[in-house]
Design brief:
Layout: E1 3-8, E2 12-18, E3 24-31, H1 37-54, E4 61-65, E5 68-69, E6 76-79, E7 84-87, H2 89-97, E8 102-105, H3 106-117, E9 126-131, E10 135-141, E11 144-145, H4 177-180, H5 182-193, H6 201-207, H7 214-223, H8 226-250, E12 254-258, H9 266-279, E13 290-293, H10 300-312
Parallel strand pairs: 1-4, 4-8, 9-12, 12-13
Antiparallel strand pairs: 1-2, 2-3, 5-6, 6-7, 9-10, 10-11
Bound molecules: zinc ion.
Length: 314
């Protein structure tokens, strides 16, 4: 039996019918009215209705959203990019669709997809780090998705890596998100490009009259631009610092690296692996976690949400 997965992002909402092996059978994408919570619920419900018209009998409906979700998996406590504060999302969507709906944090859903069907499917314990707009996290310990006492655990992007460092959106200083996300990398590269220094020459050239984009940064990296390579190296080093601390807490067998920065492939995996070895507690006297790239790109959230809903229904 298929199940429905929905992934609510800041710019788009992705919906899919997913089979038991994690394969997306049908997919639908709509724009996200991110700043209008009431319309967002309507649009999500409409998307679910559309998918249920294709397949009326489903094993479950799972909705992933970027935000803190309470331990009962019913209320979005806080979603900075979606304008939700204490939004009873589960009840609202269920009410509109007339069926049970499971909600989950988007990074958790993506991590679950990797654990069940993707890069971490051979392992029992994993941590996923998604290097995108922020640094998202998911933890699977002993085969179970770890949500924490209040439902909002696994926020790995907010591990401190620099004392008194850059101010983070969460209110603290020096979170790894401020050093190893795609946003942080681009911030550094833009600052180099606008500094009129010699090392920023190629970045300035690529940006032209406009602002340096993620795509420009990708091109500069592939060309071997020295400044870009150095900044990626730094982002990897900070991430490895966080990973060293995380290993001390949960001892995962594998780290899965996802998000926009993972598109650099070995280019990001190699420096992370190198710096991780230097950050590992008791190095040489313990098994070392594998570090791998995520298998799913944009579909991880819908695949994970659909599977979590299927499991909740069993
Ligand atoms: Zn933070």
């Amino acid at each position: 039996m298929l199940s429905v997965g929905i992934d609510i992002g800041g710019t788009k909402i992705l919906g899919a019918l997913v089979d038991e092996s994690g394969k997306v059978i049908q997919e639908k994408r709509i724009a996200s009215p991110a700043q209008d919570p009431a319309r967002l619920v309507d649009d999500v419900a409409g998307l679910i209705d559309d998918l249920l018209r294709v397949e009326p009998e489903v094993a479950g409906i799972g909705v992933a959203a970027a935000g803190f979700i309470d331990a009962e998996r019913s209320t979005v406590l806080y979603a900075p990019n979606l304008n939700w504060r204490n939004e009873p999302l589960q009840q609202r969507i269920s009410g509109r669709v007339g069926r049970e709906v499971v909600i989950e944090n988007d990074a958790n859903a993506a991590g679950w997809a990797e654990f069940r069907f993707g890069a971490a499917s051979k392992y029992g314990s994993m941590m996923m780090l998604t290097l995108g707009t922020g640094v998202g996290g998911a933890v699977v310990a002993d085969g179970k998705l770890m949500r924490g006492g209040f439902g909002i655990g696994g926020e790995l992007g907010h591990v401190t890596v620099v004392d008194g460092g850059i101010k983070c959106g969460c209110g603290r200083l020096g979170c790894v998100e401020q050093y190893s996300s795609g946003t942080a990398l681009l911030r550094e590269l833009r600052s180099i490009a606008s500094s009129s220094s010699a090392e920023g020459a190629r970045l300035r050239e690529l940006a032209g009259e406009g602002e340096l984009s993620g795509h420009h940064a990708y091109l500069a990296f592939q060309e071997g631009d020295k400044a870009t390579r150095q900044e990626v190296e730094r982002a990897a080093e900070y991430l490895a610092r966080a990973m060293g601390s995380l290993v001390a807490v949960l001892d995962p067998e594998v780290f899965v690296i996802g998000g926009g920065l993972s598109e650099l492939g070995q280019g990001i995996l190699d420096p992370i692996t190198r710096h991780f070895a230097a950050q590992l507690p008791a190095q040489g006297f313990r098994p070392e976690a594998d570090i791998v790239l995520a298998s799913f790109a944009n579909e991880a959230g819908v695949i994970g949400a659909a599977d979590l809903a299927r499991q909740a229904g069993q």
